[in-house]
Amino acid sequence: MEVIPVGFVEPEEEWEEETKLIHGGEYRDDQVGSIVTPIFVSVIYRYPEGNIYGYKYSRNSSPTIEALEKKVAYVEKGKDAVAFSSGMAAISSMLISMLRPGDKLVTTRDIYGTSYEMMTKLLGGFGIKVDEKAIGEKVLERIDKNTKVVFVETISNPLLIVPPIDEIAKVAEEVGAKLIVDNTFATPINFLPLEKGAYAVVHSASKYLAGHNDVLGGVMASNDTNYTIAVRNTRRLLGGIPDPQQVYFIIRGMKTLHVRVERQNKTALEIAKFLSEHPKVEKVHYPCLPDHPSYPIAKRLLKGCGGVVSFEVKGNGMDAIAVMKKVRVIQRTASLGGVESIITHPATMTHHTVPDDVRRELGIKDNLLRLSVGLESVQDLIEDLDRALKAI
């Protein structure tokens, strides 16, 4: 009988991504023989004599948390990763670790509403210069020699703009800036930012990585271990460590990430095509449709366009809300990436903190709805949408 050594599973070089997602980073031992990483709930650990980096206090780390971090690093093709209690804890800790008063941060106007609010209000209040004038590839024009950090999303929220991340990474490197990519919408199945020159990648793990709408969490990865050490220390100081139970759910969810995302890619494209031909729909936003402005970039960079489709209802904001209230299979709430399909009204939900004039400039209209495709039957989802649209 094979003896399983105590410790974390390091993937073999020839393993494909699906195998790494399941086995990479798992904590296993030869005494109990469990193949699933345990939930280490101990807050304190016996002080590791002679090793200041061992487990001591759970605000620093634990074996469960380290297992997730190793899994994320393997899948994102990074050298190290850091886990957090939420995606916003990850993003804020990453930026706080890099920026000081007077530094310049370049981002886009079409990022997640809470990210936008945190950067413009919180970081701006600390004396950090936040340039958020650009949308999509126009961010290239905002990067200059004074730029310290560039922050973009692989697929923006909610209009699904895909910036040319490889070009942005090149320009950022030329001026000595660091590119951070929020890869939540794309997932590592559809895109690997670090392979295209990004300095670091971040996820709201509550979404596709965990995948079941039952846990909060965030993760980041980078090839610069000095940076991940600094981010890990910021996490210790700010207290953004995830609970081990949270981490267990994310680890479990990542094991099915590949099959879920492949299915959601396919379903979302089918629904996008259906909506684009519906008489009650004015416009569909999905980067794998040829009429989307990011279609050429998406085809060049992405393996798939993800599970989110946004569309504008013919009518006003009240008509859009009426459609949202009429669906029966699809759930009305403000998240995405889970096995249940979710519909959201960005103007009053995810982006309500974004000023009206900024929303209008971005094209986030009152009649816009965002659909996160789950794992239900595509036919059931299409019938649910059709029934709701026909009711207005």
From TrEMBL:
Cofactor(s) required, per the database record: pyridoxal 5'-phosphate
KW Ligase (keyword) present: no
Record GO terms (molecular function): carbon-sulfur lyase activity; pyridoxal phosphate binding
Record InterPro entries: Cys/Met-Metab_PyrdxlP-dep_enz (IPR000277), PyrdxlP-dep_Trfase (IPR015424), PyrdxlP-dep_Trfase_major (IPR015421), PyrdxlP-dep_Trfase_small (IPR015422)
Gene3D superfamilies assigned: Aspartate Aminotransferase, domain 1, Type I PLP-dependent aspartate aminotransferase-like (Major domain)
BP-aspect Gene Ontology terms: methionine biosynthetic process; transsulfuration
Any single GO CC term annotated in Swiss-Prot or TrEMBL for this entry: cytoplasm
SUPFAM superfamilies per UniProt: PLP-dependent transferases
This protein's UniProt keywords: Pyridoxal phosphate
PANTHER family xrefs: TRANS-SULFURATION ENZYME FAMILY MEMBER
Name of the protein: Cystathionine gamma-lyase
Species for this entry: Ignicoccus pacificus DSM 13166
